[in-house]
Write a structure and sequence with these properties.
The complex is a heterodimer. Helices cover about 75% and strands about 0% of the residues of chain A. By secondary structure, chain A is mainly α. In chain B, the strands form 3 sheets. In chain B, strands 1, 6, 7, 8 and 13 form a 5-stranded antiparallel β-sheet that branches. A 4-stranded antiparallel β-sheet of chain B has the order 2-3-4-5, with no helix packed on it. Chain B has a 4-stranded antiparallel β-sheet with strand order 9-10-11-12, with no helix packed on it. In chain B, a hairpin with a 2-residue loop joins strand 4 and strand 5. Chain B contains 6 helices and 13 strands. Helices cover about 35% and strands about 40% of the residues of chain B. Chain B is of the alpha+beta class. In chain B, helix 1 runs antiparallel to helix 3 and helix 4 runs antiparallel to helix 6. The chains are: A mainly alpha, B alpha+beta. The interface between A and B is large, with 37 and 44 residues.
Chain lengths: ~240, ~325
Amino acid sequence: MVIIEQIILFFIILFWLFYILMLKLFKTTLANILLYAGFALDFTLILIRTVITGHAPFSNLYESLIFFSFIYLIKLIFSRFFRKQKAVFLMLPAVILNLTAFLLPAGFKQPDKLIPVLKSFWIYIHVPSFFIGYVSLTFLFIISIMNLIKKENYTEVLDHELKLTCFFISLGIITGAFWAEISWANFWSFDPKETWALITWLFVVLSFHVKNHKIKFAIIFFALLSMLFTYFGVMFILPGLHSYL
Amino acid sequence: MKNNIFIKLHSSLLFLTFFLIVFLSAITSFTSSDQIFIIVSSPFYIVPWFFLAILIISYPWLDNVSDKFLLSYFIKHIPFILLFFAVLIAFMTNRNVEYSLSVGEALNLNDLKKSLLFKEDMNIIIRLDDFKIERHSKKDRHVKSYKSEVTVIKDKRTNNKTESSLIKELIEVNNPLKINNLKIHQKSWSLGIQEIRFEINHHELEITEQKDKIIKIKENQFFEIFPLDIIEEKILYKWNIKDKSGILLDSGIFKNDIDAENKYPPKECDFKLVKEDFKLISIFEFTYRRANLFLTFAAVFFILMMFMDFFGFKLIWKLFNIKKHGFYNGHN
């Protein structure tokens, strides 16, 4: 089954790389077909994983990467940048995420049963909240780059994305605290994942208080770095209660 | 002019405080769990948070702000201040203690009065009747669930008579038992070995005495055995035969049960399990929370006000077609 998943993942990456190429060549109809085909395959991959494992498809790194790219793509499709040349830049994170999932060692991709501590309805609120927050942060970062480099005014979009990022990361942190109280008997244990999620939140909140675009971009960049460390760094470098590889 | 200097100073202090909190928080993630508590309960960590709260509260008095801005400012920041104080109160008043029970053992909750610092009389006895570990399948030894079946014994006084009520309860991960303000969480479990004796090459040895010891069975062959897991209430043992340099020559796992998958040590070792005396220990975490209600309220209020400020008010205005120049427009 993992081999089938790998084949699907390969075609998703291929379709999306061709989507970027077609957009660059202004062949938008073909580009959209490739995007939707990749999206449908991504959804199929998530369904396959859910059926095989019997639980939510974000309990380990491999599943979460695919889920992250899926949520990201939904955001892109519903954004005002969809069907425009700017979607080329915005598409890159989805490709990188799936490529990372594809390149993971085979041991990371084996379907696993859910461990007892993850068997709770909170997993359907806490984890997706963070993913929506992280997706918005990634989107925010790329639009910030576009805002700086292309010198186009995306202030309204940036403001909206910043609010989405802040709200969903806050929701993720608070729901995580209440779940931790039930399962680990502590609202907050200063587990590395919790700490770095808090650091990400602090950077996001700080960026609200900055008016200068360049400083704002720098803080958003630090927020993105914190988010990447929360997601990857903590898993590999700082094991703790959240170590579900 | 004077105001401008104060506002600039305020902004600088705000940024410095944020970065200090970020830096200190990052340090805690690289320290051991024993040191984390020392760092976060020290003034070095708590004072910046307090200072941040003061900076937030003081800002409207530094600048000549309009009523509209003041309302908008407080809607954004008061929920955070409330949450901060709720967290602080919870941190100071909440108590945790770990306690283990083996099957058949009981605990009177009043014995935890000193550790959990509660005053009420909780003459309630918790008795562990059974502890079960469920695996996914015989081949897949991953734990599916582990749960404790307990009996809660409460004494009730009615008409000068004391009656005991016995209630059967189940405690498992994500399903703690709540008794008044006290919660009993299923934290973990362990194997309580009383005595495990085995015979090898006609020598009788006790497993706990052999911990970290390797037994010589032949020239350049060393034998070791240790308990690995609990499967269907039987200990699963792992044995290894290594050479002088530690290179693994042979190994296997078995349990004291008829199982086709058992791989016993080679016949030349003359291995025999003589005695097995063990019990399963259920590890609980008892928590006593005084400020949970306030913390829950503050957290929900924080998220709700954030939603209203970011999206909610705009939605209401659009729905009811209210113009943007209303009393509150969420902007500076």
